[in-house]
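Figure-free illustration: sequence to structure, shown twice.
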Amino acid sequence: MFKNKKFVAKSMPILILGLFYMFFYSGLQNDHINVITPYLMKAGWTAEAINNPITVAGYVVIIFYLACGAGMIKFGPVKFMVPSSIILGLATAGVGLSESLNSYALYAVCLFLVRLLVVPLQMGGFMLCANWFIKYRGRALGWVTIGSPLFSICGIAIFTAMTNAFNLQFTYIGVGAVVLVIAILTLVLVKDKPEDVGLYPDGSLTPTHDQDDSESITLKQLVSESRAWKLIISYGILQFVIVGMMAFMIVRYTFIFGEEGLGPVFLWLAIGAGIGIPMSYVLGWIDDKLGSIKASLILNILYFIAVIPLAVMNPDSPVALIGVWAFGVACMTGGMPTMHPAVTSYVYGRKKYQSANKWIMTIQAVIMAFAIPYMVHFVGAAVAAGAAAGGPPDYTKMTPAYIGMIIMLVISLITILTMFKIPDANLADREYGQEEENA
C-alpha cells in the first residue's frame, strides 16, 4: 500500500479525517451527555428533560440509518456527509446558544439534530474504508477508530473543564466550528472510492476479484439469512452496551464518589485509555490476519473488562479497579467501531457492504434506541432513592443496569461463537498480492 505513492496521497486524508469523524461521532453521540447532564442538573433540570431529545432521536435514527445508507449508495458518502456535517456543526453550536438564550425548545431541537447527524460521520467513514481497503481494511479501521477512545481520554475532560471554566455556550460553539472545518476538508480532499481517481483498493495495480456491481440487497433477502441475524443480534447488543455505558459513566462515578472524587476517575481514564488505545489497531490487525469472527470474539470478551468493574464499584473500591475499567473502556470504544464495519464487510464483501449495512444498522438501531431510556430509568431511581433518604443519589440503584448488560454480553458472546463457519466474502481479493508494487 505505502509503495504506491499516488494511493497514499489519495487515501491518507481518509485515514486522518476518519479519526476525527470517529472522535466527534463518539463524543457527540454519547460521551458529551456526561458533561451536559451534571451541568444542567445543577441548574435544576431533571435527567429526563435533559435526555428526552436524545431518547426521541434514538427512535428516529432507526429510520435515519436506512435513509443515510440509501443516500450514500445513491449519491456517494462524500456528497451525503458534507451537508450533514454542516448542519451538525450548526446544531452543536445551537446547543450552546440555547443556554444563553434560556431556550429549552432550541436546546431540544439542536440536541435532537446532533444525535441524528453524527450517524453520517460513522457510516460515511466506514463506507470510505470499505471502499478503499480490503487486505488492509482491519488496520485502516483500527487507525480511524482510535478517535473513539481518544475522546474518552481527553474529550470528556476537556469538555468538562471548558464548560466549568467558561460555560456551555463557549464549549459547544467552539466544537461546532471544528465540525464545520472538517466538513470543508472532506469536500476538498476525499473521494468516494479509489476507482474515482484511477486506482484500486490497497494501492493494487489490478482490479479486485469482486467485480459484481449489483449492490442491492433487499430487506426480504437480508432477514431470510441467519448470518444477518447473527450480526444484528451480536453487534446490536454490543452497541446497546456501549451507548448505555459511555453516556452515563461519569454520572455513575459522581453518584459513587461525589463530584470532588472525580479527579482519580479522569486520571485513570486517561491512563487506562492510553494503554488501551492500541487495541483498536490490534483488533484491526487480528481482523486482517485471523478474520473478523475471531476478532469479534476477542472484542466481546474485552467488553466484560469494561462493564464488570463498573457493576461492582463502590466508594471503598481500590483505585486499581478504576484503572481496569478504564482499560476496558478504551478497548470497547476503540474496538467496537473497528469491528462493526469490518465484520459486515467480511460477511457481505466490499461491493455489497453498504447495501447490507443500511438494513443491519437500521434494525440494530431498534435495539440501541432503548439504551438511553434504559439507563435514565436507573439514574432516576438512584436520584429518587437519595431524595427520599434526604441525601445524595443512591448509587446502588444503578447497579442492576450493569448486571443486565453483563447478561446481554453473554448472549452476544454465544451468538458470535455460532458465526465461525461464515466464510470471508473478500478472501479472493486478499490474495491479489500486487498491492506492494510501485505505481
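We now fold a second protein in the same way, so the two outputs can be compared directly.
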Amino acid sequence: MLSPLLPALLVLALAGLLWYFVPIFSGIPWVPTQTARLERALDLAGLRPGETFYDLGCGDGRVLVAAARRGARAIGVEVSPIHCAAARIRATLSGVGGRVSIHWGNLYRHDLAGADVVFWYGHSRYTAKMQAHLARTLQEGARLVSINIDFPGWQPEAIDKPALIFLYRFPPPAGDVNSFLLREIASCPPPS
C-alpha cells in the first residue's frame, strides 16, 4: 500500500526540480541576491517613492520586496512559473503585495518603456542580448543597475567597486568601465 504522503512528496520533488532546472534551461541559473548587496544597488540607483522599478529575472522576489518597501511600484519578469509563485507569496507575506506585479515570460521581450529603474543580475554570456533589448526599450533618463555585469560600449554613471554594482543612465554615453575610471582619476586632486 502506498503512503498517503507519496503524492505530496512527488509534488514537492517536482516543484524542486522546476525551481532549479527551468532557470537553467532558459540560460541563467537562479542565484539569489544578498540583501546587503541589493540594498546597495537600490541606493546607487537612487530609487525614490513612486518610481517604477523592474527586476529582470526576479527569482523569488526579494529585490521586488525591497524596492516596494522604498515606495516604488515594483514589477518582476521571470521565466520560471515556480519562481513567479514564490515571488508573489513573498510580496504578499511581506505586506507589499499591492505594489508588486509579477509577469511570467521572457525578460528579453518585456516592454520596459515605463521604467524609471531596471535591475539586472545576469550573466556575461547574455550581456549583448540584454544590452540590445535595453537600448531598444528604455526611455531617456531611465536608470539601469547591474550586479557583476558591465556593458561594453556604455560608460557607467557610477560604480560601487566593493560590491561590483554598475549604474547606467539612458542613453548612456559611449565608453566603458575604463573610461569611467580614467574620468574618476582625472577628477582627483594630485597628492601633496
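Summary for the second example: Residues 6-186 form a domain with the Rossmann fold fold (CATH 3.40.50.150).
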